[in-house]
């Protein structure tokens, strides 16, 4: 985002807002049914009833086939509480045409989901019954004819500084989904492979632990990157507490301050060795990194049985660590960093939070405009936290180890971070 005047900045954001998150021009229709052969197996059907093609961004949702366990459903017990599920999440560097699922008019997408891969814990409600629901919608594009991803929305990690894709350049919209919830009566807990009942999540203490096999790249170790992620988490907390500046309001609604502070504190505790154990790994045993060059890293949170894990792909580990505050110039994009990627991924570990944070809206401009979305809350979007952290730090407001003068822009324009 370049150094606009106040009037041009307003017109720019009005245009992008019109293009992104405000228009809900299309509605998909979905259903969830239970298999007659196996009560734990569900069939999800999503149909396009409109006369236009709907292209859905397949990032960490039911359309995502590159991630084995994306968050496709919301599952609650009979008291309305979220049930912890096994989930996977992948962070991408930018969009590509293969990241979209195209539904022609009247086309139907189907996907089978086995609840035994998602839940191995006892629901906390009175009866043990659960309800299963699809999300309220997706991010995508309704169009006629062919549509391709604009070049600006694609990443370029080979330039200096490395550039992530500009999410807002794709002009995506809210695509709503209408579907009824499915009530189920199932026997819980589900047995593990050894026939042992696991009635509670397995959350050994220890916080974040880095695998010793992670190499040092470009003079930076994973311990260095994790330390910088802790600085970013502290910056989030400082921004949420500071009511004298408008920076927090660029990314979150005012009523979200306590939630944002609580999330930042959970991350800080995890980095300092408190809370559930989370392993940070560099070897990618599940081979998710190699499936798409845009994938920077991924996470896996089991519903029990073993600790959660973060995998940093080699593309992310080669990125710079973090820029020094007040070092950028107007009109110059702040390059992608390994710290941004690691913080973003840590925020998707749902063993730290009651309800998983799994939104996939990236970039400074898009995360600001996300406040206007009717379908995705900003507190559910990990990059909203990361963008707030990076802006707070870039302005010299992020606290130690920086002790210089703050440098917020006179017009209140956030730095150009994708």
Short descriptors:
five-stranded mixed beta sheet; 19% strand; 7 helices; alpha+beta; single chain
Helix/strand layout:
Layout: H1 6-19, E1 26-34, E2 41-47, E3 53-57, E4 74-77, E5 87-92, E6 100-103, E7 108-114, E8 130-133, E9 137-143, E10 173-178, E11 182-184, E12 208-210, H2 222-241, H3 257-271, E13 278-281, E14 295-301, E15 308-312, H4 314-317, H5 338-346, H6 364-369, H7 382-394
Parallel strand pairs: 1-10, 12-13, 13-15
Antiparallel strand pairs: 1-2, 2-7, 3-6, 3-9, 4-8, 5-14, 8-11, 9-10, 14-15
Helix pairs in contact: 2-3, 2-5, 2-7, 5-7
Average pLDDT rating: 84
- pLDDT < 50 runs, ≥5 residues: 1-24
The gross shape turns out to be globular
Beta-strand percentage range:
15-25%
Strand order within the widest beta sheet: 6-3-9-10-1-2-7
User: What's the Cα radius of gyration?
Assistant: 21 Å
Largest sheet: 7 strands, mixed
Q: What is the number of beta strands?
A: 15
Secondary-structure element order, N to C: HEEEEEEEEEEEEHHEEEHHHH
Helix content: 10-25%
Terminal Cα span = 9 Å
Helix/strand/pairing category = alpha+beta
> Count the helices. How many?
7
Descriptive overview:
The chain is of the alpha+beta class and 418 residues long. Helices cover 19% and strands 19% of the residues. It has seven helices and 15 strands. It has helices spanning 6-19, 222-241, 257-271, 314-317, 338-346, 364-369, 382-394; strands at 26-34, 41-47, 53-57, 74-77, 87-92, 100-103, 108-114, 130-133, 137-143, 173-178, 182-184, 208-210, 278-281, 295-301, 308-312. It has a seven-stranded mixed β-sheet with strand order 6-3-9-10-1-2-7, with no helix packed on it. The chain has a five-stranded mixed β-sheet with strand order 5-14-15-13-12. Strands 4-8-11 form a three-stranded antiparallel β-sheet, with no helix packed on it. Helix 2 (222-241) crosses helix 5 (338-346), helix 2 (222-241) crosses helix 7 (382-394) and helix 5 crosses helix 7. The longest helix is centred in the middle third of the chain and has 20 residues, at 222-241. The protein starts with 5 loop residues before the first helix and ends in a 24-residue tail after the last helix. The model is unreliable at 1-24 (pLDDT under 50).
């Amino acid at each position: 985002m370049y150094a606009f005047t106040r009037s041009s900045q307003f017109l720019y954001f009005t245009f992008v807002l019109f293009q992104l998150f405000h228009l809900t021009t299309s509605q998909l229709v979905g259903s969830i049914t239970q298999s007659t052969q196996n009560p734990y197996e569900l069939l999800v059907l999503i149909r396009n009833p409109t006369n236009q093609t709907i292209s859905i961004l397949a990032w960490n949702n039911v359309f995502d086939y590159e991630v084995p366990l994306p968050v496709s459903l919301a599952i609650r017990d009979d008291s309305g509480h979220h049930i912890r599920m096994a989930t996977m999440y992948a962070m991408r560097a930018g969009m590509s045409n293969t990241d979209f699922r195209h539904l022609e008019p009247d086309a139907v997408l189907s996907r089978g989901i086995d609840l035994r891969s998602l839940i191995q814990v006892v629901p906390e409600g009175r009866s043990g019954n659960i309800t299963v629901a699809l999300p309220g919608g997706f991010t995508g594009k309704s169009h006629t004819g062919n549509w391709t991803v604009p070049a600006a929305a694609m990443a370029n990690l080979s330039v200096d500084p490395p550039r992530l894709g500009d999410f807002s350049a794709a002009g995506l919209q809210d695509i709503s989904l209408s579907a009824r919830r499915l009530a189920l009566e199932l026997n819980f807990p589900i047995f593990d492979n050894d026939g042992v009942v696991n009635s509670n999540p397995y959350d050994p203490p220890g916080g974040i632990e880095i695998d010793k096999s992670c190499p040092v790249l470009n003079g930076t170790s994973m311990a260095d990157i994790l330390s910088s992620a802790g600085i970013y988490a502290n910056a989030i907390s400082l921004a949420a507490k500071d009511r004298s500046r408008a920076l927090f309001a660029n990314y979150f609604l005012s009523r979200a301050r306590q939630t944002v502070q609580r999330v930042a504190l959970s991350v800080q505790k995890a980095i300092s060795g408190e809370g559930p154990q989370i392993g940070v790994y560099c070897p990618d045993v599940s081979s998710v990194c190699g499936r798409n060059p845009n994938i920077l890293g991924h996470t896996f949170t089991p519903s029990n049985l073993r600790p959660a894990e973060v995998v940093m792909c080699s593309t992310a580990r080669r990125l710079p660590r973090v820029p020094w505050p007040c070092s950028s110039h107007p009109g110059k994009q702040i390059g992608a960093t390994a710290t941004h990627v690691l913080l973003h991924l840590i925020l998707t570990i749902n063993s730290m939070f009651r309800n998983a944070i799994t939104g996939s809206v990236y970039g400074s401009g898009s995360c600001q405009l996300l406040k206007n979305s009717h379908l995705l809350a900003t507190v559910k979007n990990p990059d909203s936290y990361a963008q707030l952290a990076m802006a707070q730090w870039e302005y010299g407001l992020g606290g130690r180890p920086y002790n210089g003068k703050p440098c917020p822009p006179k017009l209140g324009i956030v730095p150009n971070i994708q």
